[in-house]
Each structure stands twice: as structure tokens, then as C-alpha cells.
Amino acid sequence: MSFLNLFRIALKALQRNKLRAFLTMLGIIIGVASVIAMVAIGQGSKQSIQKQLSGMGSNMIIIRPNSNVSAGARLDATNVQTLTMDDVKALQREAPHLAAVTPVMTAKGQAINGNNNWSTTITGVNTQYLDIIRQWPLQDGVEFSDRDVQGAAKVCLLGQTVITNLFPNGDNPIGKYIRFGKVPLLVVGTLTPKGESAFGQDQDDVILAPYTTVQERILSTIYLQNIYASAVDEASTTAASNEVSQIMRASHRLKPTDDDDFAVRTMQELINTFSSTSQLLTVLLAVISGISLLVGGIGIMNIMYVSVTERTKEIGLRMSIGARGVDILLQFLTEAVLISITGGIIGVILGITSAHLVTYFLSWPTLVTESSIVLSFLVCFITGVFFGYYPAQAASRLDPIEALRYE
Amino acid sequence: MSNNKILELRDIRREFRMGSEIVRALKGVSFDVEAGEFLTIMGSSGSGKTTLLNTLGCLDKPTEGTYLLDGVDVRKLGRNELARLRNLKIGFVFQAYNLLPRTSALENVELPLLYNSKISARQRRERAIQSLQAVNLGDRLDHMPNQLSGGQQQRVAIARALVNEPVMILADEATGNLDSRTSFSIMALLQDLNAQGKTIVFVTHEPDIASFSSRTVMLRDGKVVKDSLNENKRSAKEVLASLPVSEDY
Question: Is the Cβ of B59 closer than 8 Å to some Cβ of chain A?
């Protein structure tokens, strides 16, 4: 029998029992719709985390001092002072995959403006930090210059949170002097709001100053706390981080047997960690929805068994006019697959719609991926075949004589 | 009458095992049917009538004996080959019509052709229409079975039996569910088809119906007890005409 005829017969049979076909389909519809919607929510949150992390500079490379061994004892990494300006210069000179390198010096302390004060962090960087590494534009004013960096000038840029707390009555902070601890600093510019980081940190609660200012006037140290660098593009992040390791080892004159006395972290690793977490979430959601698809499949099996019993006489008739066992098998199988596929189509549409509704009403990020559609479709087809097969086989094995006499 | 033998039954035996007992439904049945015959198989219940019908219809195979349908030895065939034989050579007419519900007369008639892959959709439709016209239902193509009277439903079933141009129409108590007037009209239709050369085998227990056929085979206890030609075959049309006219037909 041709496929077209099979399809026609199956469609006719389903049309004879529209309500029942629809109710059976409903199991599949709900299953597929929830798979699509849940995966969309999972993928959406994954994408939004990725976006946030990229906003921090996805090609950023962070170099920190690492614990090293002193007289047999491993030292706490925070006390280790191994990074120097020589390292920065070596990196600037020798690493072709790096677009920018900056020392990063941070100090916690009290910022004061007249009667207002605020406990915050001052971060000392060079002129490449904002433009290249963080891609963080100014809201107003000017950045400090290379000359400011060389001269450890007492200038700073304020983040929005600091501005709100030090200038509560809305004064323009540019041109004003604030104090950080005992050091007076001239505000030369303000930063655009950046919001919370992926970790819930307030990125706007910051004062930026030349690293020399922080190093010499606040911390009084010759060592660097961190070095931030930026790869030329996201793709070359790994190459750049390898390069950094080599240059740093050479700069620190480490023997091949020595452990690194620094640690290189890329945002890529962080992104991967977060992505795998939300990937897990997606898989979990998909599995839960997959179970509802399974229940839908069992619904198909149940109704197909009922249908076979109910239509025993029809099966007998079909056999008596020349249907072979395989014709009957294919007929019922086609019916089952038709139910599951139609349910799948409706489910996909419903799933996409509900994903959009979730975004619209709850403003959760959602992302409907093609693969989730293709996959749930495939699962539908397999469900139809798998759960339709046994009832169809039972039908095909009926004895035509008994089937014809069945009442 | 030509010597073209459609059916040849030689010493057909059929045994069923019911637990430890063996039931012999047919105990050696032999007869031939030639093309163009209108044969009735008669017998009371338990005579082996149904078993014989199943055997003739290739739904069942004899335990022993030879059954040739249009020259094909049925006993040697497998399940699928039997199905094919039924599709090409036999047209069934059942007591309960066995039409598919909520399916138009035309689609019901098309059904046997769906299982014959050599026939295109257009041919299928054309032949189904011709077939329905042959049973005078050319104006009821799109009617559902529940919109048709019992007699009309049985005529759709006859059209379905005719549509694949079988060598034999096998009717099983085809008038059993019908009132006598409608029964006669169905018999008249079958007589017409017979006159056009169709071989008809009609299984019944009503002697009244048997009188419309050209030959009667009487079964009792799994054996043929009488096989005779009907000398004074009645015309169903004439009987129908002689009945008083009633409103319900």
C-alpha cells in the first residue's frame, strides 16, 4: 500500500473520532510545549549570563600572584608580592595577542566629601583600562591622562553609586575635590552606570584613579596586586593567556621545574563555568518536560489499544477485502504517528508562544533554539512509533474470522 | 454454461482442536462451481456452513483436501498471499453489511482498491462510481452509512464486493438483516449481476432465498447431503412485483 493511501486511511480514522484524537494529542501537545518553553527559559538565562560576562570583557585576562613556596612552606596567595611593573612592561613589549595591559591596585577605604562619606573601593589602573579592557565609556568629564599616571596625579573618576552617596543633593561632582582616606582627589570625570555584575556585585561602587596614585599615595608599595590584560579578540583569548604565562615565567626567571608564582585567569573559564551551570538547568528542565512527553506517549498507547479493540470488526473487514497484516500494522502505526506529529506541531507553536509570553509578562529572558524544536519533533515521531507499535502489532495479528464475528 | 471452473473442492476436511477434543467441522466436502453459476449453500447451524464459507473466502485453510480458487491451490499459500487472493478474486457481502461508519458510500466502495497498489486514485474513484451505479446508488455517493436504509447499505456492500472485479461474490446471509421486500430486491440485484456473468455463492439457511439461485448445495454435519440444480428458479423481480405496494420502500 502506498504511503499516501496509508496517510489517507489514518487521517479518515482520526477524523471519525476528532475529540478523542485531540485529547490524546493533548498529552503530546503539553509535553512538547513544556519542553520547548522550558528549554527556551534555560537557554535564555544561559544567554543572558553569557552576555553579562561578556559585558565584563570576555577577552579579559586576569593575572594574580600565586602562592609560592618559601623555605618549604606554601604561602597564602594574598600576601605574595610577585607582580611588578617589569612584568607589565614585558607583557606590553612581548605579547602580540594582547591589546592592552594594565596594573590593577585596589584599596578599600572611606571616601569623603564634606559631610558625606562612603565606604568604597578605589581601583588604580592605567589609561587603557576603561577603553580597551572594560569598554566602559565615561558619562561626563575626561579620563585621566598618561601624564597623570606618570606623575601619580591626585585625580579620579567616580562610579554612579559613589556619586549618589557623596553628592546626595545632585551637585555635579566634576571639578570638586573629594578625599579618599587622607588623600585629596580631584574628580575629573564620571562613569556611566554599569549595574550589577553576574555575581551581584555593584560595579558602580568604585573610584578609578591612576594606579601610581593608589600604589604610591594610598598603599605605599612597589608591588602590583593584579595585572589585567585584554586579548585582541575573544577567539585569541586562550593563545593570549598561554603567551602571558610564558612571558611571566621568563620575566620571573622561573626554572622549568618551578611552579608558576602567578595565576592566569580568563573570563572564558568563568563563562564556561556559568554556562555549564545553566546548561545543567536546561537539561534538568528538559528532562522534567520529557517525562510529560513520555506520559503523553503512554496516552497514545492506551488510546490505540482501545481503538484496536473497538475497531476489531473494521480490522476483520479490511483483512477480508485483502489487507495484509502489515497493512493493518502500518495503518495503526500511521495513526499513532499522525497523532504524535500533529501534537508535536501544535506543541511547538504553543511552546514558542508561551516562551514569548514568559518574556513579555515576567520579563525572563527566553531563547527558542532550533535544536530544541528539531529534537522535540524527533522525540514525538519516536514516541508515536514506539507507543503505537504494540497496539498496531496486536491489530495486525488478529484472526480475520474472529475479528469479523467480533461484537 | 462454460466449463470454466472457478471453485474446485476435493474432500475438504477441517478440524478444530477444542481443548482435548477434536471437532470435525467439515468431513470431506467436494463440489465444483463453474463460472456464471449462482450457488446457494444451505444448512442449519452446526452443519459446517460457516467453516465452509471461511474456507471458500480464503479466510481459513482446510486441514486436508484440495481447494482450487480460479486454479490456485489455496492450501499452499501463506497469510499475505491469502490476503492478496481475497483482494483480487473474492468479493465479500456480509449479513451486517460491515461498512465503515462515518465514511461515505464512495469511500467504502473504494476500500478494496486501496489495498491494490496497481490502481491509481483516479481509477479507484472511477471504478467505485461505476460499481455504485451498477447497484443503482449512483445518486448516493456521498451518503454516510447512517443516512442509508438497510437495503441501501447492503447494496453499498455489494458495490464494494464488485469493485475489484472478483471471480466470485461470496455472500454470507446477505439478506439476514433485511425485511422480505428488501431481501427480494437484493436478490433481484444479485440475479441481475449473475445474469451479467458474475459467479455468486450465497450462504443462507432460508430455503426461500435458495429458490432464487440456480443450484443448491445442502450441508449437514460437515457433509454435502444434497447438490441439485434448481429446475424452477424464481425471478426475484417478479416476486417483488407481485408483492403489494407498501409505503416504506
Answer: yes
| Residue B69 one-letter amino acid | L
Most A CBs within 10 A among B100, B156, B163, B173, hence the mutation to make, goes to B100
For chain A, the straight-line distance linking the first and the last C-alpha, in angstroms and rounded, comes to 28
CA B163 from centre of chain: 13
Distant-in-sequence, close-in-space partners of A377: CB < 8 Å, separation ≥ 6 = A32, A341, A344, A348
Phi, psi values for residue A96, rounded to 5° = -70, -20
User: Which of A2, A8, A404 minimises the CB distance to B117?
Assistant: A2
Show the cell assigned to A224: 602590583
Report CB contact under 8 Å: B59, A320. Answer: yes
Contact B87 A313 (CB under 8 A): no
- pLDDT in tens for each of the 249 residues of chain B? 445 889 999 999 999 988 889 989 999 999 999 999 999 999 988 898 989 999 999 999 899 999 999 989 998 899 999 999 999 999 999 999 999 988 899 999 999 998 888 888 899 999 999 999 999 999 999 999 999 999 999 999 999 999 999 999 999 999 988 888 899 999 999 999 999 999 999 999 888 888 999 999 999 999 999 999 988 888 888 888 888 766 554
Say yes or no: B177 contacts chain A, CB-CB below 8 A. no
Rg (CA), chain B: 18
Chain A: which residues have CB within 8 Å of chain B? 1-2, 4-5, 8-9, 12, 15-16, 313-314, 316-327, 400-401, 404
Judge contact between B66 and B11, C-beta under 8 A: yes
Residue A12 with chain B: CB contacts under 8 Å:
103, 107
ipTM over 0.95: no
Report yes or no on whether pTM surpasses 0.80: no
* Structure letter (DSSP) for residue B142: T
What values do phi and psi take at A85, rounded to 5? Answer: -65, -25
Residue of chain B with shortest Cα separation from A403: B59
A320 to B100: CB separation less than 8 angstroms, yes or no: no
Written as nine digits, the cell of B123 is 481509477
Q: How many CB atoms lie within 10 A of CB A394?
A: 17
